[in-house]
Amino acid sequence: MPAGNENMVMHGVVKLAKGQIFGSDDVGGGTPAMAGCNVHLGYESFDTGKAAFDALAKDGEVRMPFEKQFWSPGFGALTDRFGIRWMIDVDTPA
């Protein structure tokens, strides 16, 4: 990373069973913080969803605890330690 950007993320990857989410900081500056949207991840079981939620919530802010909702066996919302907003959900069969 260029001088002055030592604490920024050059390349970050979250590997998923069927793909990945890739991200990096904008070293050019001038880009506003992520706001008004969320990254949504759906899981097949409560336990895997809860594990993902807990890992992302570490040193972050829980906006809605991961728990049963009327539409899902498990759902929660958080902002991770990097300021990324996440919604973690347990997908239910159609």
TL;DR of this structure?
The chain has about 90 residues and is mainly β.
Could you name the key traits of this structure?
94 residues, mainly beta, 4-stranded mixed sheet, two-stranded antiparallel sheet, 1 helix, 6 strands, 13% helix, 40% strand, elongated
Summarize the SSE layout with pairings.
Layout (H helix, E strand, L loop, with lengths): L11 E5 L2 E5 L15 E5 L2 H12 L3 E9 L2 E8 L5 E6 L4
Parallel strand pairs: 3-6
Antiparallel strand pairs: 1-2, 4-5, 5-6
Give a verbal description of the structure.
The chain is 13% helix and 40% strand. The protein is built from one helix and six strands. The model has no long low-confidence stretch (mean pLDDT 84). The strands form two sheets. The protein has a four-stranded mixed beta sheet with strand order 3-6-5-4, with helices on one face. A two-stranded antiparallel sheet has the order 1-2. With 94 residues, it is mainly beta. The longest helix is centred in the middle third of the chain and has 12 residues. It is elongated and about 50 Å long.
